Amino acid sequence: MLPHPTLATHYSTPEAKPEFVNQLFDKGAKHYDGVVDWGFLRSGASYRRRTLRQHGLRPGDHLLDVACGTGLVAVEAAKILGTAENITCLDPSAGMLDIARSKLAANFVQARAEKIPLADNSFDFLTMGYALRHVTSLEETFLEYRRVLKPGGKLLILEVTKPAGRVGGFLFRLYFGRIYPFLTRLFTRSDDARNMMRYYWETMDACVPPALVLQALTAAGLTAVQRKVIGGLFSEYTAIKA
Ligand SMILES: C[S@@+](CC[C@H](N)C(=O)[O-])C[C@H]1O[C@@H](n2cnc3c(N)ncnc32)[C@H](O)[C@@H]1O
User: Fold this and answer.
1) Is residue 43 in some structural domain?
2) Could you tell me the strand order of the sheet in which 234-240 lies?
3) Which of 48, 50, 67, 88 could anchor a disulfide with 76, C-beta 3.0 to 4.6 Å?
4) Per-residue model confidence as pLDDT tens digits over 82-94
């Protein structure tokens, strides 16, 4: 299952999506941290750290941060773990990985969530922050997550999800669809940064409903599959490898 239908204005077939997404993040990488910092009212670091702690990340854990991007999740995880040496950061974008490498001494892997070049049963905890929409198959991705987690290991997927109500939906569309891309262009003077945030919105708008994500996690053989919603907007999907 695709996380959203093919967005024909950007790429013509599902096979062409990875290359398009890769270029988008390579070009937007140097703007990413600044843009998400003010775009989420400077709450990103504390939210990521609090959420990791609440969901049980603890010192000694081996963590795989999939779609690490510039390292925003991994940097907060390292504060909890007390070190980055047990963190593996995975992302297909060389541009995003370069920035992450400059922030922490973790292990870095250039690869995609659908095909993780790491051994079975390797990690206690797996995170994916704001990137589920970019994979080409939910099933393949979740099977890989199950494979690389140790028995008893936990996964945590963070997402921004379109609110269900009419007023929430309207405000969501107004902010992420219009205001955020406009301000991104204004502040960065970069079309690449604006395109990245416009695509961010389009994929959130087109994303499959949370029930299908939960269904795909369960179908991959994961247990204790749950979704916690914060402020009607932030989804925290969790599951355990039995
Ligand atoms: C919006 S950024 C999220 C970065 C970071 N996790 C955070 O919390 O801000 C999305 C990231 O997903 C990565 N990505 C895109 N396609 C991917 C795939 N198939 N597998 C893993 N990561 C992917 C992009 O390169 C980009 O770095």
Assistant:
1) yes
2) 107-110, 87-91, 63-66, 123-129, 149-160, 234-240, 223-230
3) 48
4) 999 999 999 999 9
